[in-house]
Specification:
HSP40/DNAj peptide-binding domain, alpha+beta, Chaperone, DNAj Protein, Chain A, 375 residues, Helix Hairpins, 3-stranded mixed β-sheet, single chain, 4-stranded mixed β-sheet
């Protein structure tokens, strides 16, 4: 661990805080700084890792006791407490395992090579139409990524040669050092935890075991995906160094704004203007759906603006499930702005026959208005 920021300060806790307080504070901060919630921001990612590192120590009573007494030096070799340089204190193995077993990452007695570091995960943002989200589609993405070197097959060593066991750590990948009353373990500074040293590196990857490549990958988008849906392509992320497992590639989907339909979950919404005569007399509304069918909706006589008509099962399909949502159409009654002479005459005749009962809401409003003014 290389950070020098106080762990209690990172977790925004007092040094006297109990385990429950530390845990609660960590959860709040982890949620705040999690990379998935901050668009992959590097600053937030670093903060998230630092907070996680602090909690990993303070949640363990034995690690916390060591940290309270020696600070960061409790987990670093070569300083404080009169410790010697890197050595193998196999005689302290049982004590070390019981106190720092979790910190060691479960290396086991007698040491062990540091676990191979898995390659980094990658993110790819893809924009698709609402129609593509409805039906799904097969597509391809092209990404620049670190891939295993073809020359050395990911080993990092020149073809015909191989890596040698690290003389510093004896192939364990870790070295132990006495730190005051404790024996602490850290990654070998020579092989950086791999347990091996490459004397003759591959000329193409320079010993890394990976090179930059452009890959074209097939992506299957299932029907019913929504904004922010993630598609995971296992093993298509960054290659790990020297043959370590690769990370994953995550496709984040974004839905383009549609000219007609809006979406909320599996429900599709649309607004449909109708003439005032259709609103008064009733009729039928024909709506072409994303499913390729024309949906007929009955308009009841006397319908008002803002009323909604619902067609069951004509909405978005359920992602990785059965059935579909609904299509909801909101009615907007349109008042004509251009009338012919004949139309105007007919409307004048209609107005002469009005009694007020045709529009009860209007009649009730003006009655209330008169009453309020009189009062």
């Amino acid at each position: 661990m290389t950070t020098t920021i106080d762990y209690y300060e990172l977790l925004e806790c007092e040094r006297t805080a109990d385990a429950a307080t530390i845990k609660s504070s960590y959860r709040k901060l982890a949620m705040k700084y999690h990379p998935d919630k901050n668009g992959g921001c590097k600053d937030y990612e670093a903060k998230f890792k630092a907070v996680s590192e602090a909690y990993d120590v303070l949640k363990d009573p034995q690690k916390r006791a060591a940290y309270d007494r020696f600070g960061h030096a409790a987990f670093q070799g070569g300083g404080g407490g009169g410790g010697a340089g890197p050595q193998d204190f196999s005689g302290f193995s049982d004590i070390f395992e019981s106190v720092f077993g979790e910190f060691m990452g479960g290396a086991g007695r007698g040491g062990g090579r540091q676990a191979q570091r898995r390659g980094a995960d990658l993110r790819y943002d893809m924009e698709i139409s609402l129609e593509e989200a409805f039906h799904g589609r097969s597509t391809e993405v092209t990404v620049d990524v670190s891939a295993a070197c073809d020359t050395c097959h990911g080993s990092g060593a020149r073809p015909g040669t191989q890596a040698k066991t690290c003389a510093q750590c004896g192939g364990h990948g870790k070295v132990r050092a006495q730190q005051g009353f404790f024996v602490v373990e850290r990654a070998c500074p020579v092989c950086h935890g791999s347990g091996e040293v490459i004397a003759d590196p591959c000329p193409d990857c320079r010993g890394e075991g990976r090179v930059e490549k452009t890959k074209t990958l097939a992506v299957e988008i299932p029907p019913g995906v929504d904004e922010g849906t993630r598609i995971r392509l296992a093993g298509e992320g960054e290659a790990g160094a020297r043959g370590a497992p690769p990370g994953d590639l995550y496709i984040f989907l974004h839905i383009k704004r549609h000219a007609i339909f809006e979406r909320e979950g599996t429900t599709l919404f649309a607004r449909a203007p109708i003439s005032f005569t259709t609103a008064a007399l009733g009729g039928t509304l024909s709506i072409p759906g994303l499913d390729g069918r024309t949906h007929e909706m009955k308009i009841p006589a006397g319908i008002q603006s803002g009323k909604q008509l619902r067609q069951r099962g004509a909405g978005m399909p359920v992602l990785q499930g059965r059935g579909a949502g609904d299509l909801v159409v909101q009615i907007d009654v349109e008042t004509p702005t251009k009338l012919s002479t004949r139309q105007r005459e007919l409307l004048e005749l209609f107005r002469e026959t009005e009694t007020g009962d045709e529009c009860p809401a209007s009649q009730g409003f003006f009655a209330k208005l008169k009453s309020a003014i009189a009062g």
